[in-house]
Design a protein that fits this description.
alpha/beta, 2 domains, 6-stranded parallel beta sheet, 13 helices, binds iron/sulfur cluster
């Protein structure tokens, strides 16, 4: 995993520092079995906040900052994150600011953010979640326990006192229910050092509340899916720019993405993946004309450019007689399959109505041939080819 990019404004403002901890190798100590620390009555307590980049975790951190607690943020990079990838690729997103929302939240709050790569460890969570999946392939309950567990280990290593999350009871049917809150606290190993400031008043008092590190009466009792209280609270804090919630903080909640991931696992014959595999599922139009091969078709210039980066890993096709999409081919294709792939590539070119279109067919080693084909008509593309 390469180094993470930080927004230029962060470097300029120098209000906080962002830290990338690749692969999270150092996170090994479990909690709460950590060495107790002797505090004076006046020593400032420290909380680590799970920062997704959305409004809820931002408000939770802000509520605790208001109580004079030192807060630092932690953000886990799983590979499925919505942040900072396809949002920056598509042409029609070009007018939107390209920012990493977790970093932006940290900047707005004036806190330090630690971005930790958990791609490898996270695979077990996605592949075989103990508590199953939500509506799509989102293993939210296991995911929350995993992330709070990682934060708990980080807390132990860095002498922090408690963890905060932006969870709200009843907001997510699978993972944010009254009965799942203690389960996450228990399975993560955070126990009563896990504080949910947005709904704390509806839960038993946690250690930070019992010890008086934070005042329970200043915490909230939010419940349900209504977002208006969060929007009102944001206005009270003068926060008027935040990422809009769109069903979840990762692609695993997205039905179309989940379909593509299921298809990928089925074609592969097992539920494994590498980072490139799951990144490619975020990009392009995916068609599986035959069980043994799939095409990924760039939908615009941004996606064509992104897919170009994989030309040395996968066979690919593109039109030479007309403008059109770059198409990656995954799986194994014989000469008949290549003809079909070329006709599909022609369909997604500006020559779709031409009698013949020339298509360059390249293998991953750079060998190239040209096929001149008749583009497929829409009627010749069965709907079930589209994933
Ligand atoms: S939406 Fe994704 S990142 Fe968020 S809890 Fe669910 S699985 Fe985890």
């Amino acid at each position: 995993m390469g180094p993470f990019l930080f927004a230029g404004s962060l470097a300029r403002r120098r209000r906080h520092r962002a830290v990338c901890s690749c692969r999270g190798f150092a996170l090994v100590l479990p909690l709460p079995l950590r060495r107790p620390k002797a505090y004076s009555m006046t020593e400032q307590r420290k909380a680590v906040a799970l920062i997704s980049g959305g409004l809820d975790s931002m408000l939770a951190a802000r509520l605790i900052l208001e109580q004079g607690i030192h807060v630092e943020g932690i953000n886990f990079f799983t590979g499925f994150c919505v942040e900072g990838h396809t949002h920056a690729i598509r042409n029609h997103h070009r007018q939107k600011p390209k920012r990493n929302n977790a970093l932006w939240v940290a900047e707005e709050l004036g806190i330090k953010l630690h971005i930790i790569d958990v791609i490898e460890e996270y695979k077990d969570i996605v592949i075989s979640p103990k508590h199953g999946y939500g509506a799509n392939l989102n293993p939210c309950l296991d995911c929350k326990a995993f992330m709070v567990g990682k934060a708990s280990a980080w807390m132990g290593q860095n002498d922090f006192d408690f963890i905060i999350t932006g969870e709200v009871i009843g907001q997510r049917p699978k993972s944010q229910r009254r009965d799942t809150m203690p389960l996450v606290a228990r399975e993560s190993g955070a126990f009563d050092r896990l504080l949910r400031p947005l709904c704390a008043k509806l839960l038993p008092p946690t250690l930070p509340e019992r010890e008086g590190w934070v005042q329970r009466e200043k915490l909230l009792g939010l419940n349900g899916r209504n977002r208006k209280p969060q929007i009102r609270l944001a206005a009270r804090f003068g926060i008027d720019d935040y990422a809009q919630p769109a069903g979840g903080c990762c692609f695993l909640t997205d039905r179309s993405y989940a379909n593509k991931l299921s298809d990928f696992w089925q074609a592969r014959g097992d539920k494994s993946y590498e980072l490139d595999d799951i990144m490619l599922l975020k990009v392009g139009r995916h068609l599986r004309p035959r069980a043994h091969f799939k095409l990924i078709v760039g939908r615009d210039e941004g996606e064509n450019n992104f897919l170009s980066g994989y030309r040395r890993q996968y066979p690919h096709l593109y039109p030479t007689s007309h403008k059109g999409a770059l198409v990656l081919l995954t799986g194994k294709a014989n000469s008949d399959d290549l003809q079909l792939a070329a006709r599909l590539t022609a369909r997604f070119s500006q020559g779709r109505d031409a009698a013949r279109v020339s298509i360059a067919v390249c293998d991953a080693d750079g060998h190239q041939q040209t096929l001149t084909v008749r583009p497929l008509t829409p009627n010749e593309i069965p709907p079930h080819w589209y994933l």
